[in-house]
Write a structure and sequence with these properties.
Length: 312
Amino acid sequence: MDGLNRPNNALAAGPIGRAAAWLIGPRGISDPKRLRREVEGKIAVVTGASHGLGAETARLLGAAGATVVLGARSLDQLEEVAAEIKAAGGQAVALRLDLGEPESISEFASEILTRFGHVDYLIHNAGKSLRRSIHLSYDRPKDLTATSSANYLGPMRLTLELLPSMRARRSGHIVNVSTVGVLFPTAPKWGFYLSSKAAFDVWMRAVGMEARPDGVTLTTIYAGLMHTRMSAPSRWMSALPGQTPAEAATGVARALIRKPRFMIPAYGYLTAVLVPILRVPLEVAATALYKRLGDTDAALRAINGKGSGNAA
Ligand SMILES: NC(=O)c1ccc[n+]([C@@H]2O[C@H](COP(=O)([O-])OP(=O)(O)OC[C@H]3O[C@@H](n4cnc5c(N)ncnc54)[C@H](OP(=O)(O)O)[C@@H]3O)[C@@H](O)[C@H]2O)c1
């Protein structure tokens, strides 16, 4: 476990917060028998499986009988998760994947195809969040490259590597873990994160429509708040109802079992309708608010050279 999968705030962590998160989050399926019927003996590739939702998804699928390929940059952490899956009787392989390096992506994909011959599930979960005032990014090209490679260009490249074999077998399911934030009013400071998530969402949906007649299906999960290391730097988020990574992983399970085209928290429907209608007043309000909220300690530490830049 990450140790970050519980919010600090008593309300969010208490029964009211838990009930709210259950009501509003994309619902999951945790029935182990149904999941096992779907995934047993199948090859599931999970990106970003070293932490948070990816690690929990890998554990869930491994426990249900899938052979899980875990990809991320932190190989030690990946190996720990893979070892846990194997200790529990499952099958798992940890492979280094850096979505910012085209070579790493090619090696990852060809290693999978060499070892297993095919992929049944490709779960695009890896992601890099960033909430930082734009003036703090003027001299940080890394903010642009880290977000666009983890959220957009890297997953696009990985899809290009693995989709041909999925289409050739006329089988496979892709899950894109996007964010409900792309359906919210555009928010100051979130430009790099939201634009890269939105770009991959649109690209993946277009490709998904082309692949569907060839037997390859796509679910886009517009995930709501999850209490992970990604959201941890924004302390106000810990006060809001959100899912634990384990709860959110049951949403990925639902995506694999039912294969809906998309999954969305209940409030996502409302924002999707209201945001275009109320665009001007929402932008005026967001502009008035954004200076008051300030930048997170993580965002400020990173520009002073003391942090990782993992600033949500
Ligand atoms: N947390 C939320 O509230 C929230 C809300 C909506 C959507 N989401 C989405 O949910 C997904 C999972 O997020 P999380 O909350 O579980 O975050 P997390 O705990 O920070 O995990 C992110 C994962 O992505 C991997 N990753 C980041 N950059 C990478 C790169 N360049 N190459 C390969 N792997 C990379 C990380 O592994 P390494 O660092 O080891 O590479 C890590 O395993 C993300 O796509 C995120 O955008 C999260």
